[in-house]
Each structure stands twice: as C-alpha cells, then as structure tokens.
Amino acid sequence: MSRTVAITYAAAAALTATALGWTLWQGLRQPAIALAFGLLIAVGETVRGALPGDRESAPLGAAGALAYALLGEAGGEPTSHGVLQVIAVTVAASLVGLAPQVAVGRAPSLDQAARRVLTVGFAATCFQPLYTTGTLAQWLGTGPYHVVVLLLILLLTVLCDAVLTAALARARTGWPYGPLLRDELRALLGIGTAICATSVVIALAVAVAGLWALPVFCVPLLLTQLSFRRYAASQATYRQTIASLARATEVAGYTPHGHARRVAELSRATGRELGLSEAELTVLEYAALMHDIGQLSLLDPVPGGATEPLDPAEQRRIALLGGAVVRQTGVPAEVAVIVERQADPYREQPLTARIVRTVNAYEDLVRAAPGKAPTEPVECPLQALEQLRLATAYDHDPRVVEALAQVVSRGPAG
Asked: What is the pLDDT of residues 24-43, one digit of tens each?
C-alpha cells in the first residue's frame, strides 16, 4: 500500500472512529431527521451502479450525505446534529446499504468509502459551525446569499474529492497525475453537477417543507441512478461484443491467442501515459481490439500474425479492409479511422493510430515466433523497444515509443 493510500485510509478511519464514538457517547440528536437521511443514503448505496474508473457510483447516497451535511433547519426548526453526527450517520447508513451488495458478491470500494467520509466531513465542517453559531446569518443573512454559500461549499468539496481521487489513482497505478485529475474534473460537469444541485435542493426543501420533501426531490436522481446502471450494463455488453468479434482472427488462426487483448491493454495504458481523455481511451481500446480484423481477407495467414514485416502496400490494403469491416459493426466512426490509418507513415496518422501501430509492433517483437513456445519471446522488451526507437524516423512516433517504454517499465500493474 502506497503512502498516499495509507494516509487517506488512516485519516478516514480516525474520523469514522471519532464520529461513531462521539455519537454513541452523546446519543443521536433529532433521530427522526437522522433516520430519514440515513434511509436515503442507504437506498442510494443499495442501488449503486458501476461507472468507468472509480467515479461516484451511488449519486443518490452522495447527494443525501451532502444534503445532511448542509442541513441547518428542518420544517423551519433549527437542527443540532453537528459535524460528527453527520459523519456517523453517513458511515452507518452506507454500511447498511452496502450489505446487500456484499451479500451478492460485489466487493465495496475502500477508496470510495474513504473519500465519502472525508468529503462529507469537509462539507459539514465548512457549514455546520458557521450556521449553528449564527455566524453565517450575521455575515450574509438568510436570503439568496445562503444558496451561494452552499454552492461554494459544494464546489470546494467536489474539487477536493477530484484531487483526492486522482491522487489515489496515481498512487495505485503510477499513471500521470495531470490526465487523471483532468478526467475527474471533466466528470464533475456530468454526475457531479447533478449531485451538487440535488443536495442543495434537498437541504433547502427540507428546511422549508420538512422531511416530506425528501422523497419528492430524490425521485429524479434515483431514476437517473437507475439509468446509469442500465447504461453501464449496456456498455459492458457492447465491449464484450467487440472483444468477441476481435477474437475472430484468433479463432481462424490468423493471429496468436490473446494478441488483440494484449494490444488493447497496452494501447490504453500508453494512451493514458500520453494524456488521452477517458472517451479517447475507450475509442483507442476498441480500435486496438479490432486492429487485425482486416487479416480475415487474406487467403493464407501471415506467419505468427505479424503484419509489421509485410510490404507497406499490403499493410495498407489490410488496414483499409479492416476499416471497412469495422464500419459495418456499428462502432463509432473514429474506431474505423484508427484501423484504416494504422499502416500510414506516423506523421500522417492521428495519435491514436500511432499508438496502435507502435504497440502492435512491440507485441509482434516480444511474442513467440512460429515454431517456438507461446511464452518464448523473440526478443526481450528492452531489445524490442530499442528496435522501435531505431524506426522513429518513419514508422513510429518517438513520443509514443517513450510512453510505451514507461508503461513497460512499470510492469503489468502499469
């Protein structure tokens, strides 16, 4: 476990222990309000879905926890739960909501749990002391400025969460921090905006209308969360379909077993090293999976499935045929363009096509030659990378080769 992960877990554990201990010692204040928000958080965790990366997969639970952290009144009466009770209720409700997930074999994400504790604690610390002491009312009153304060607190909260998420991903994977943070900030414009808006609306509605406002204002986000689950399931099926189609060359004996998968994994890691966005990485992965589909047009398989030694004109013919096949599958047009352009001189290629070409050449160099065992390499990775460096005048982009070298140097975890 890296130092960043260890510090994050230790901070979240210490805060959780303090909050639970204090709440048990002092007793639960305003239990009806705590129970209502706890139920909301638990439901959100129970219907959580799977999103790309380690993004927020329980938006209803997150919105409920943040709304409780920003709650100053309920039905016109002031609340008194405080920072530590907010954390304790969030943790307890999250555990209750995760129980069904664990029961069906879905392991909870410790990173998300630690981040939830720290971000909710941050939001509550920024709001509760100012509100309960009357400082906020003295400074800004109770008009529109109150809404502005809530939004500013949430903005700071989600920014801190994005920074923390990128840091944890950097510690676990070794990927560049800048692109990871950029992807997290981009994600804030989607589900992050919905979470912030809903949490503010819930806090304000409960302050005026009481707890009856909770179901009314939570139904839209609950429906959105269920839609996310369906979308994630459809995307997983879509990717499996592409992977199955890519295996056609392996089943037909044109490429070695697992070649497309290995090229896709290395291409995605190299693209991340070069700072591609999550959407660009998805397109790159699809293209890498299907980069050899044009070989099905050959009468006789290429020895070892390696197209790099072929005549450039033949390489382009195979690439164009592959692109034509890809266009018939219904995948995004960008995928077909990458497959078609992978045999062009690299200066004429988009970056994604350069990545696929270089990674494919590397894979051809380190895989076994015909007649050798599948695990017996033709060259060691360093020798293969050196050959790619020698070909950077025409065939391979130096930036891509060096990014690939960084990925290879980190081993399988990179």
From this structure: 999 999 999 999 999 989 98
Q: pLDDT-based confidence at 375, cuts 50/70/90?
A: very low
Residue 354: name the closest of 323, 326, 395 by CA: 395
In this structure, are residues 323 and 337 in contact, taking their beta carbons and an 8 Å threshold?
yes
CB–CB of 137/376 below 8 Å? no
Q: 3-state class of 368 per DSSP? A: coil
Which tokens hold the place of 391?
A: 């070909």
Residues ≥6 apart with Cβ < 8 Å to 94: 41, 42, 45, 61, 65, 113, 116
DSSP H or E segment with residue 77:
strand 77-78
Distance CA 165, CA 112 (A): 8
Nearest one of 164, 206, 213, 200 to 185, comparing CA atoms: 164
CA atoms within 13 A on the CB side of 355: 31
Q: Which residues pair with 100 in a beta bridge?
A: none
Q: At what angle do helices 259-273 and 278-289 cross, to 10 degrees?
A: 160
Between the CA atoms of 54, 59, 63 and 66, what dihedral angle is there, to the nearest 10 degrees? Answer: -10
Confidence check: pLDDT of 140 > 70: no
| Single-letter amino acid code for the residue at 268 | R
Structure tokens, 11: 């901070």
Does 176 or 57 have the greater pLDDT score? Answer: 176
pLDDT band for position 112 (cuts 50, 70, 90): confident
Closest Cα to residue 274, out of 396, 387, 406? Answer: 406
Residue 74 is classified by DSSP as: E
Confidence tier at 373 by pLDDT (50, 70, 90): very low
Q: Tell me if the pTM is above 0.85.
A: no
Residue 229 · residue 47 · CB < 8 Å: yes
To which residue do tokens 């380190």 refer?
366
Q: What gap in Å lies between CA 265 and CA 413, rounded to an integer?
A: 11
Torsion angle (degrees, nearest 10) of CA 326, 327, 329, 335: 60
